[in-house]
């Protein structure tokens, strides 16, 4: 059941992050889901790191604070993804 909650949380966080982040991001629903799940892990791990001082791979729970942390992590994931896939113009 945890995996299903992470998928739902990732989809919600990815959709909110793509709506907040300026510019056009491709990828469709699958890209949104993957970036949201990665963002949930980034946000959860950063939350644990800031609160306890130890780094562990963690995902937030399906709650309002968990969604907020996941959206922050998804924004970071979208930013990094845009840096990696940006095409330079000559």
Automatic annotation (TrEMBL):
Primary subcellular site in the record, as a coarse category: membrane
Membrane-spanning ranges: 29-50, 62-84
Keywords, ordered alphabetically? Cell membrane, Membrane, Transmembrane, Transmembrane helix
Pfam families assigned to the protein according to its UniProt record, in alphabetical order: Transgly_assoc
Q: Does the keyword Membrane apply?
A: yes
- Has UniProt tagged this entry with the keyword Cell inner membrane? no
Might you report a single GO cellular component term?
Answer: plasma membrane
Q: Per its UniProt entry, which superkingdom is the organism in?
A: Bacteria
**What InterPro entries does this protein's entry cite?**
Transgly_assoc
| Membrane-topology annotation of the record | Multi-pass membrane protein
Its subcellular locations are: Cell membrane
Q: Which family does it belong to?
A: Belongs to the UPF0410 family.
Q: State the protein's name.
A: GlsB/YeaQ/YmgE family stress response membrane protein
The species this protein was found in = Fischerella muscicola CCMEE 5323
């Amino acid at each position: 059941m945890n995996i299903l909650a992470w998928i739902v949380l990732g989809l919600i966080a990815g959709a909110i992050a793509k709506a907040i982040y300026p510019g056009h991001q491709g990828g469709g629903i699958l890209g949104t889901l993957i970036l949201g799940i990665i963002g949930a892990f980034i946000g959860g791990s950063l939350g644990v790191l800031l609160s306890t001082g130890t780094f562990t791979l963690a995902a937030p729970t399906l709650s309002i604070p968990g969604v907020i942390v996941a959206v922050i992590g998804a924004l970071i994931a979208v930013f990094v993804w845009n840096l990696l896939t940006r095409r330079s113009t000559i």
